[in-house]
Design goal:
This protein is of the alpha/beta class. It contains 9 helices and 16 strands. The chain has one domain: 3-Layer(aba) Sandwich (Rossmann fold), CATH 3.40.50.880.
């Protein structure tokens, strides 16, 4: 018994060390917006988080959207209203994400990288497994702030909610809380210990998030509402904006019944408001 306890302590210590070491390698910040309208105050908070110097520049990545020119123009106008820094945009194809070294280098050296909304699967189909993916991680490690809204928020997690459902029988999504039903994929991996959902409260995405939790009970699940953001710096998370953030974690005695419906006990649920902080 004592030997098993000691072994568990060693494994726990190793996990904590690895997690803290990983966070310590990343000097940058994440500014994850739940979608919806972005107030000038929220954009000012983004610029403040990025710590932009006069010579720093911003890169917008619009690969998630089907209307890249409109998205770029709208985000550029918002950012230009709160800072004077140069703003560039690169609408990469899969080939360019490996072959256009000038664009890739520009992303790597940006101080603020902004991922637009749209379809997170579309974005990851372009970026996953490419030199651009590595460049974004190098930028993050070197101190850049990575921001995204809506789909750009979903891609932040290592485990990414795709928005798809395996057992969908009609137009209503996630009518039940079930294991193995929420489709996930590999995201950018800037967040490894939590899974991010967006438009959360306004679209009542509780069934989806709890289904994801039942599949990944060792992760925190974080639902960020519209016009709201979480700022992740190391292991610390701060809520900013206008609405709330829901966090659910540590479900116990997880089981399934009747066509994979999920059941568990004593999960921790927290509802955070702007200005409040919690640990990742």
């Amino acid at each position: 018994m004592r030997k098993d306890f000691s072994k568990r302590r060693v494994l726990l210590a190793a996990f904590v060390f690895t997690t803290l070491f990983t966070y310590s390698q990343n000097k940058g910040n994440l500014f994850i917006i739940g979608g919806g309208e972005r107030s000038p105050q929220l954009m000012q908070e983004l610029v403040k988080t990025a710590g932009l110097r006069p010579t720093d520049y911003i890169v917008i990545l619009p690969m998630a959207t089907s209307i890249p020119e409109e998205s770029i123009a709208y985000v550029s106008a918002q950012l230009s209203g709160v800072c004077a820094n140069h703003i560039a945009s690169f609408n990469f194809t899969k080939a360019q994400a490996n072959d256009n070294q000038a664009w890739i280098d520009s992303v790597q050296n940006a101080r603020l990288i902004y991922i637009t909304g749209g379809d997170q699967n579309k974005f990851m189909d372009v970026v996953r497994g490419t030199k651009l993916y590595e460049a974004m991680h190098r930028a993050f490690r070197n101190g850049a702030t990575i921001s995204g809204t809506s789909a750009g928020a979903a891609v932040m997690s290592q485990i990414m909610i795709t928005g798809e459902e395996k057992d969908k029988s009609d137009n209503d999504s996630f009518k039940e809380i079930k294991t193995g039903n929420a489709v996930t994929s590999q995201g950018m991996g800037f967040v490894t210990s939590a899974i991010i959902d967006q438009h959360f409260i306004i679209r009542s995405r509780y069934n989806r998030l709890l289904s994801v939790l039942s599949d990944h009970p060792g992760k925190k699940v974080i639902g960020v509402d519209e016009s709201t953001a979480i700022i992740i710096t190391g292991n610390n998370i701060k809520v900013v904006g206008e609405s709330q953030v829901v966090v659910v974690a540590r479900p116990k005695k997880l089981r399934t019944f009747s066509h994979n419906k999920a059941a568990f006990k004593d999960a921790r649920i927290s509802l955070f408001s702007p200005g409040e902080s919690f640990k990742l």
